[in-house]
């Protein structure tokens, strides 16, 4: 059901997982959305699916690798051709690598893919977003907003993902803070830069790096992409200011929710054990 005015949204890595769910969430508000991902056929499948799910969906997709500097002019032309104006740019494309393993057991190609997708991708795509937004009508307060998914130091400390993932995601957080400062120093008041934290989301990325011993915890702590998108989309649409940290859930709420789900699981286990106990 459309609400408010229609925004122009770019989501990198929107063919599946969280990016796909975010695209669907914005489309449900009547916004106009461009998605990209490396696998062009899968992007077109996602576009078809979104048009089927949301009748009047203004959705467009293109096969594009966020690391491909040589191809960014084509992506820029596609975005401007389909949206005209970009109000929100979400650097969602990312990877935690092919598997969970200590640094010395990781494959170099995998390390390179993880670090370049997360960090170089966030750098080049933030740069492209600013290039587009600075050509749009200016404003004294931020009206165009960029979102990056980086790690805080605490996030990196708590995460069990491989080192290339953690290191590059800390780098992404630096990109967010530093770009905000550079825009302010250059008097570019129309653009805000924000950190986006979805929490643990049940996607391919999480499945790849979940070890068997962590599977039980992940099942309890992680949420469906649709549920996460439902809470993030309104926050992204109504964001204000030069920079903020937008979270799906605050840390205390996340912990309380996990404890509650653990206690539920414990109670169910106890009930099952009682039911199975042979009568004396
Ligand atoms: N899942 C979680 O628990 C979690 C938690 C915190 C933050 N995040 C962040 O949320 C974002 C989305 O993650 P997800 O869990 O939804 O992952 P996902 O299910 O693996 O989806 C990743 C998406 O990014 C695309 N992509 C990957 N590399 C790309 C590249 N070089 N260029 C363009 N597109 C690319 C993928 O399509 P192609 O493979 O076809 O390119 C896919 O559409 C990531 O930045 C991740 O770090 C996730």
Automatic annotation (TrEMBL):
BP-aspect Gene Ontology terms: chlorophyll catabolic process; PSII associated light-harvesting complex II catabolic process
GO function terms (MF aspect): chlorophyll(ide) b reductase activity
Designated name of the protein: SDR family oxidoreductase
Organism: Thiorhodococcus minor
């Amino acid at each position: 059901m459309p609400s408010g005015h229609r925004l122009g949204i770019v989501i990198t890595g929107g063919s599946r997982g969280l990016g796909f769910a975010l695209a669907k969430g914005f489309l449900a508000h009547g916004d106009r959305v461009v998605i990209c991902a490396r696998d062009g056929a899968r992007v077109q499948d996602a576009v078809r699916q979104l048009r089927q799910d949301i009748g009047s969906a203004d959705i467009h997709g293109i096969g594009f690798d966020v690391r491909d500097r040589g191809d960014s002019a084509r992506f820029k032309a596609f975005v401007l051709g389909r949206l005209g104006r970009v109000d929100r740019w979400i650097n969602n494309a990312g990877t935690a690598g092919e598997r969970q393993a200590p640094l010395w057991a990781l494959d170099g190609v995998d390390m390179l893919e993880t670090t370049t997708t997360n960090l170089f991708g966030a750098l080049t795509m933030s740069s492209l977003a600013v290039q587009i937004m600075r050509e749009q009508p200016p404003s004294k307060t931020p009206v165009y907003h960029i979102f990056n998914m980086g790690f805080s130091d605490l996030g990196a400390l708590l995460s069990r993902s491989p080192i290339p993932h953690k290191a590059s995601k800390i780098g992404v957080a630096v990109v967010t803070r530093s770009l905000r400062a550079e825009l302010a120093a250059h008097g570019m008041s129309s653009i805000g830069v924000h950190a986006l934290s979805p929490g643990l989301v049940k996607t391919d990325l999480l499945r790849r790096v979940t070890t068997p011993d962590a599977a039980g915890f992940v099942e309890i702590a992680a949420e469906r992409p649709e549920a996460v998108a439902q809470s993030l989309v309104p926050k992204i649409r109504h964001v204000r200011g030069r920079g903020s940290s937008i979270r799906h859930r605050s840390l205390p709420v996340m912990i309380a929710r996990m404890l509650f789900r653990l206690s539920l699981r414990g109670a169910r286990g106890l009930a099952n054990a009682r039911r199975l106990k042979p009568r004396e």
